[in-house]
């Protein structure tokens, strides 16, 4: 089946298996939001959460198709009198059209750019980015096993947030799509669309205004990601929105970004009315799934809850029991995740104030520049923090129907906590940036809620003001040509960093002033709220996304500098998948991302990924033992912790014998050997002691034989 055909099949699966039962679950238990369209959008996200909880049970019982009972249960419950969900209103056509336009931008970006980043076929597929084979290996593990282990170090406990791989594995069993297509194509597209729909629905719940739906949806794909420098617009460390390369290689983040939205909407409903037992059930499902989806997302929501609780207590002298109950659920689920899933490990995260800014700045500077410049570090850090906070300016425009509504405090608290954590901790692979990426949806909701609170006349004024912001950021990006790391002196570097933000600020100030004076001349009166709308809208315009430029230019494959996957390796791994059982174990001589040149960066995961089988020892990065090292070199290129096991594995590829082959077979259950001739040539004895089953490129696949039982009776012939 073509990729296009698999996308169509996947869409049908999302609607029937996830969307319909998820909507029934949401509406039946929460009573709905009052808008049917909103409930459908939020229900689709809930359907994914339900599947993520149901699939592991089915996998453990040997019934991986268990999630197919979800639509059946939904139909039965809907047919039973008294179990039909409440009625709801439809959003007006123009509101739905605005949301559809945002979804169209996502699809167009995916076709033109997102689907081009990761190559699935041809020679370029052997040069993937470092994350995609890892994602594929974990998806393969959850496809065939539960509880999961590290698939590339058989027997090692998996200490990673693996919830999204339940979704991918379930989709694989139901749609029969290839895992690499799901990991790199259909699931990122699906989760991005669900996030856009979810953010539109949540904005309506928060504001009570249907205009919030298209505003939030369009902001999520066209704005809210401030990149003042031309070179930062396409840099993964500076892009936090969903239409970016980072979204395509981090399905964990994509799932968390989609599932936190119905939780935010449910929280708003629980604050504004008496919570029901159904509300608590839905909250428990969403919080438990989020706790194992991405380690950075649930703490942001929890911090927002804390700020909301303090807001109600200190400002309104009210003790919020729903806030306390939700906080208990968050603490219990995240605590269980930290102990049972993450193994109580820090995974290399350390307390290091401002190290995030130093690390981001250092990689952008020429080697001759004095990176210790405090002034440049302060300037760079200030602009980054401003960029992260900019979408939250929308909170200045929010008008609440209830003065004691704590939701603005919750959203703002989540954003501020994300900025604080990112600024104060550091991890060798910069994973602390996922805290700031997690704030993206919270910031968009604040911006959309603020704009939706404007009167129609003031909202109309916001359109030209946003255009001013777009023009300002495009002007700012154009004032400096070239990148700072190509500069020959300090003055060039300082100009490259300082000039674009300063030009953008001056252009926005001048544009708002001119626009305000024009409106004042026409209308004869411009109240303070109208001036605030102009300033906030122009600032939001400055967060104009690079997605339109990416759509116009098209995407290019993001490939490595060398073939980390051996020529013929994908075909060889798939031969094992087609001719072996899911419990088979592979031994390989491939351990390094670049097998022909030291140092050995132990980030080889492709054998486990494409074979969908556990490997005795392939790479060993991204495990609890290696990630616990705070030094990047030690974490990614350090020694394997079990040298005896590694020697027993490697000796069969250099000096094979019946004894050492039998040791692997009997002790570790090894059935297959995958040898890459780039690491070492195949010893002649191996052809005599094992059966060569497949050969392609530089890869050979051997199947171990069952050694004959030694004859202990001398009177009988051997």
Automatic annotation (TrEMBL):
Q: Which residues cross the membrane?
A: 7-26, 32-54, 61-80, 92-111, 191-224, 244-269, 276-292, 298-314, 326-354, 374-397, 409-428, 434-452, 459-480, 500-523, 530-551
* Keyword set, alphabetical order: Membrane, Transmembrane, Transmembrane helix
Q: Organism's domain of life?
A: Bacteria
Does this entry carry the keyword Cell division? no
Q: What is this protein called?
A: Uncharacterized protein
The species is: Kribbella deserti
């Amino acid at each position: 089946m073509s990729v296009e055909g698999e996308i169509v099949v996947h869409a049908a699966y999302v609607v029937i298996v996830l969307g319909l039962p998820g909507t029934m679950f949401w509406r039946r238990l929460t009573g709905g939001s009052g808008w049917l369209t909103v409930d459908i959008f939020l229900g689709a996200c809930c359907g994914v959460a339900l599947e993520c909880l149901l699939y592991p049970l089915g996998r453990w019982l040997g019934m991986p198709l268990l999630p197919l009972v979800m639509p059946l249960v939904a139909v039965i419950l809907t047919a039973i009198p008294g179990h039909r969900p409440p009625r709801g209103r439809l959003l007006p056509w123009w509101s739905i059209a605005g949301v559809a336009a945002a979804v169209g931008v996502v699809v167009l970006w995916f076709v033109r750019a997102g689907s081009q980043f990761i190559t699935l076929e041809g020679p370029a597929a052997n040069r993937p980015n470092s994350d995609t084979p890892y994602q594929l290996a974990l998806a393969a593990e959850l496809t065939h096993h539960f509880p999961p282990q590290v698939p590339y170090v058989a027997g090692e406990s998996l200490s990673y947030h693996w919830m999204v791989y339940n979704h991918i594995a379930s989709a694989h069993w139901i749609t029969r799509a290839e895992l690499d297509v799901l990991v790199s194509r259909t699931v990122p597209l699906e989760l991005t669309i669900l996030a856009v729909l979810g953010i539109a629905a949540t904005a309506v719940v928060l504001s009570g205004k249907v205009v919030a739906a298209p505003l939030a949806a369009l902001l999520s794909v066209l704005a809210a990601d401030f990149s003042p420098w031309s070179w930062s617009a396409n840099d993964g460390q500076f892009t936090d929105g969903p239409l970016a390369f980072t979204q395509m290689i981090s399905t964990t983040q994509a799932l968390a970004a989609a599932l936190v939205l119905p939780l935010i909407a449910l929280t708003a409903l629980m604050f504004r009315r008496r919570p029901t037992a159904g509300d608590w059930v839905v909250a428990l499902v969403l919080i438990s799934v989020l706790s194992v989806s991405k380690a950075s997302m649930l703490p942001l929501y929890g911090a927002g809850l804390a700020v909301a609780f303090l807001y109600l207590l200190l400002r309104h002298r009210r003790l919020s029991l729903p806030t306390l109950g939700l906080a208990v659920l968050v603490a219990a689920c995240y605590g269980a995740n930290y102990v049972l899933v993450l193994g109580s490990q820090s995974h290399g995260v350390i307390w290091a104030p401002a190290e995030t800014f130093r690390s981001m700045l250092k990689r952008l500077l020429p080697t001759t520049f004095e990176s210790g410049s405090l002034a440049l570090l302060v300037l760079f850090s200030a602009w980054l923090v401003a960029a992260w906070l900019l979408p939250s300016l929308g909170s200045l425009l929010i008008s609440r129907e209830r003065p004691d509504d704590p939701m603005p405090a919750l959203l703002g608290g989540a954003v501020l906590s994300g900025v604080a954590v990112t600024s104060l901790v550091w991890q060798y692979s910069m994973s602390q940036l996922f805290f700031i990426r997690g704030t993206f949806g919270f910031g968009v909701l604040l911006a959309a809620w603020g704009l939706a609170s404007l009167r129609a006349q003031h909202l109309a004024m916001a359109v030209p003001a946003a255009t001013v912001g777009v023009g300002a950021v495009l002007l700012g990006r154009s004032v400096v040509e070239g990148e700072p790391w190509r500069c020959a002196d300090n003055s060039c570097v300082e100009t490259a960093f300082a000039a674009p933000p300063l030009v953008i600020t001056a252009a926005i100030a001048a544009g708002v002033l001119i626009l305000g004076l024009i409106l004042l001349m026409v209308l004869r009166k411009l109240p303070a709220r109208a001036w605030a709308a102009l300033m906030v809208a122009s600032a939001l315009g400055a967060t104009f996304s690079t997605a339109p430029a990416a759509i116009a230019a098209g995407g290019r494959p993001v490939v490595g500098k060398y073939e980390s996957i051996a020529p013929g390796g994908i075909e060889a791994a798939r031969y094992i998948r087609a001719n072996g059982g899911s419990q088979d174990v592979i031994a390989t001589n491939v351990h390094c991302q670049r097998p022909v040149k030291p140092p050995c960066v132990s980030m080889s995961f492709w054998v486990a990924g494409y074979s969908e089988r556990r490997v005795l020892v392939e790479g060993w990065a991204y495990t609890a033992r290696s990630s616990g090292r705070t030094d990047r070199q030690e974490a990614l290129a350090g020694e394997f912790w079990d040298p005896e096991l590694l020697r027993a594995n490697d000796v069969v590829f250099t000096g094979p014998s019946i004894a050492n082959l039998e040791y692997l077979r009997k002790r570790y259950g090894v059935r297959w050997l995958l040898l890459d001739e780039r690491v070492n040539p195949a010893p002649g004895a191996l052809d005599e002691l094992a059966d060569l089953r497949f050969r392609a490129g530089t890869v050979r696949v051997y199947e171990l034989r069952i050694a004959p039982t030694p004859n202990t009776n001398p009177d009988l012939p051997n």
